[in-house]
Amino acid sequence: MVTLGHYLIVSGILFAIGFAGVMLRRSLIIIFMSLELMLNAANLSLVAFSRFHVQPSGVPDYNAQVFVFFIITVGAAEVAVGLAIIVALFRARQTTHVEDINTLKF
Amino acid sequence: MSYLELLKLAAPEATVAVTALAVLAVGLIRWGETPSNRRSSAFCSAVAGLGLAAAVGAVVMLPQSATLFGGMLVITPLTSLFKIICLALAFFTVVLARTDLSSRNRGEYLALVLLATIGLMLLVGSEELLMIFIGLELTGLSLYVMTAFDKTDIRSAEAGLKYFLFGSTASAFTLFGLSLIYGMSGTTGLAVIAQKLSAQPISPLLFAGIVMTLVGFAFKIAAAPFHLWAPDAYQGAPVPSAAFIASGSKVASFVVLGKIVLVGFGPDKGSAAWHAMISGWAPVLAVLAALSILIGNLVALAQSNVRRLLAYSAVAHAGYTLLGLVAGGRDGFSATLFYTTVYAFTLVGAFGVVALVRRETGGDDLINFAGLRARSPLLAGCMSIFMLSLAGLPPLAGFFGKFYLFIAALRAGENHGLLWLVALALLGSLVSLYYYLIVLKVIFVDEPAQHETSLPRRNVGEGGDFLQRVSLSVPGPLVAHIIASLP
Predict the structure, then answer these.
(1) Which of A38, B231, B275, B392 has its CA 20 to 30 A from that of B470?
(2) Nearest CA in chain A to B160
(3) In this complex, do A101 and B158 lie within 8 Å of one another by their Cβ atoms?
(4) Is there a contact between B322 and B285 (Cβ–Cβ < 8 Å)?
(5) Cα(B455)–Cα(B260) distance, rounded to whole angstroms?
């Protein structure tokens, strides 16, 4: 039997993998993918909570599932904006590695 | 609820959205054979300004109070006041964009400013997690592009990228936190969340959700240790973008953060008093505030670029402002709102001076400000008022803001439990006086570098009347307004 706890553990692991990717990887594209993973971890936990949060009438609470659709849309917008910024940066620097992006510093 | 009624209540946001599209269209118009961008961009600014004025009118016409869809759109005197404040800050940004930005693609830039403003208005006027998330993202995505907008400056894209990466990570944290809070309470409306949370003890999962939500907002208000993007974004972005990030985004974030912690998480406040720490969000915010005051003030001492200096001082100011939320209650919230508003208008003014100096001398390091008094007494006078107000010297609005904050914090904890935080903030203010005075010393005492004096001076006075309007109004009416409009 798969319970709410199982879903939450998986989503927690996904979130941790995503965050580790953002912190540790050096390529902007991979960092980007890790960010999406973090968003999807939140999606998974929202859907799981929605499924297990059954209202007295017997139907699950659909609010969170609507929330997830919004998150997917926002995620797509975020990718568009992020890639545009990366392209602008690549035109100026010819690199997508975070170590090379160091004009502004303390 | 008919659509007509909905449109009536969302009229300010709708007005700004229509204006954004109109500005985008106007920016595409070719004026005659020659690519005379100047006329087109002036027209864009005019349309944007008119649209913002119309939106203020629409806010004034709103009913006294209304609630739509379980808090997705809430109208109270408080939200109306802050919508007007956000619109005013957007208006100043539009004016700044006229003096600072090259006239290429002005329409697109102004459309982004307006879209960000819609995000701010949604944030201010919502008490529901989904709308708050969408407001955050709409603001954030517009601001990322505004930061990276200057294609001729290599630092702009870099600043935009750093802002984007930190921002997206922070919003992912917030989102995960919100999902946990939804899971614990089974609802997304703040008022209902408070009811559900008061019925249960604080569990580890709930605490994780609260902390992760706060991480995202700490990023938005640039509180340490989530402030790392701020210096780069303030320095690398075009000046109007930096001004809008520092003012509008910050005001709206504090309003919504206050609503979330005081309304939504109210039952799990805990206590940050030094003799009686109780786990909850108050100790988390207290630690953020203490770190921000320390790091912001100490690092600002070492800066040689004025925008970077303003960024680190912004970190410190975020720390002071959090004091009001840690104190909680009506007093604390109104002190926070008053301080963040005063701070936002002061900072827009300071960035206005930076924009004019930058246009004249081509840079915004401290050296570029040397001898500003001789070149433009008006700008030097404005800058000294802004700096002294940020430092919190008595006759100026910044002093009253700090005063209300500290009093609220002292009164809140029983037995002066928050005394440690207030003492730290007072110490921080003392330290901050040093670097604000350094800026003034450079302006009033230092001799200008030789090659700068030969540059034309005609432009400097142009923004003067704008700055004087921003420069500090009497604090009394504003604080009265804020306190009167609190629920």
Answers:
(1) B231
(2) A85
(3) yes
(4) yes
(5) 51
pLDDT, chain B, mean: 83
**pLDDT tens per residue, range A34-50:** 999 999 999 999 999 88
- Say whether residue B134 is in contact with chain A using an 8 A CB cutoff: yes
Query: Is B182's Cβ below 8 Å from some Cβ in A?
Result: yes
The arithmetic mean of pLDDT across residues B433-443, rounded, is 88
Which of B248, B253, B217, B254 is CA-nearest to residue B114? B248
Asked, for residue B187, whether it belongs to a domain, the answer is: no
Q: What is the pLDDT of residue B253?
A: 92
Number of domains in chain B: 3
**What does B75-113 look like in DSSP terms, one character per residue?**
E-HHHHHHHHHHHHHHHHHHHHHHHHS-STTHHHHHHHH
Same domain, B142 and B241: yes
Residue B460 has pLDDT above 60, yes or no: no
Kindly determine whether residue A19 and residue B169, on different chains, have CB atoms separated by under 8 Å. yes
Return the CA Rg of chain A: 18
Can you read off the two tokens belonging to residue B31?
């004026």
- Please write the tens of the pLDDT for every residue from B186-209: 888 888 888 888 888 778 888 888
So where are chain A's domains?
Answer: 4-100
Residue numbers in A near B145 (CB within 8 A) = 81, 84-85
Exposed (0-12), middle (13-18) or buried (19+): which is A42, by Cβ within 10 Å?
buried
Task: Collect all residues of chain B within an 8 Å Cβ-Cβ radius of residue A85.
Answer: 144-145, 148, 157, 160-161, 164
pLDDT attached to residue B144: 93
The H or E element spanning position B73 is strand B73-75
- pLDDT at residue B143 tops 90: yes
B121, B144: one domain? yes
pLDDT confidence tier of residue B459, bands split at 50, 70 and 90: very low
Sequence-distant (≥ 6) Cβ neighbours of residue B435 within 8 angstroms? B300, B301, B303, B309, B313
The answer to whether B76 touches B487, Cβ cutoff 8 Å, is yes
Q: φ and ψ at B68, to 5 degrees?
A: -115, 140
User: What is the reported pTM?
Assistant: 0.89
Pick the CATH number of A4-100 from 3.30.70.20, 1.10.287.3510, 3.30.470.30, 3.30.700.20: 1.10.287.3510
Domain range enclosing B361: 306-449
